[in-house]
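Usage

Read records sequentially. Each one opens with the input sequence:
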Amino acid sequence: GRGGGRRGRGRGRGRGRGDRGPRGGKNEESTVWHPVTKLGRLVKNSKIRTLEDIYLHSLPIKEAEIIDSFVQLKDEVMKIMPVQKQTRAGQRTRFKAFVVVGDNDGHIGLGVKCSKEVATAIRGAIIDAKLSVVPIRRGYWGNKIGKPHTVPCKVNGKCGSVRIRCVPAPRGTGLVAAPVPKKILTYAGIDDCYTNTRGKTKTMGNFAKATFFAIAKTYTYLTPDLWDKFKLTKAPFQDHTDFLADTDDYDNKKQKDEED
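and closes with the structure output:
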């Protein structure tokens, strides 16, 4: 037979299961978080106390568990849509999921994932949303009485043909917005806001992205109340160099192998 008595290769591109172990459910050990990045090691060992310390030094977040360590996020599936690819054998259908996560108190994330199964797409979108969590700055419409309740200034966002503008509103106005941006603004912790949109807002994915991009810009504007001089501190990687060197499994393992 083909392959000279061995298993025929054919056109398949499968490479076995590798080191992923046997099929079936996850082991109990897999639920325990084993950080694989330097930032993850610092967070798990409580060397970094707040999420704002990470944002201050613009450290890239590559593990969703880092976000879970600091904030309790609620998630909601915005939309699940089928997408198709034309192949020689017909169409290949996959599912695209849009998920928004937020804590209703100044943190918001939006994730998109495409997969063959709906459940896998949703899980991947939640992880993607957590990795894209950004801080949202809130402000006042008039007198600075009480807690911040609206966007600090007019902000714009765009994605595809969709354009959205968020305008500060008086306390008690509520969210004057379509259902999609209203949900995102609520998860971000904004209580009052006027919105103005243009373009094909029926394309819900672009509408959600435009809203997310708009409110993510709130910290990019340097307003006079942020002009105060701020003394910079050492970056966490620099501050905890010795700890990172001691807990580096790869280097320790390599050193043991060399000794052996």
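Summary fields computed downstream for this record:
- The beta strands are 74-87, 90-102, 107-115, 134-135, 155-159, 162-167, 175-176, 193-198.
- The longest strand covers residues 74-87.
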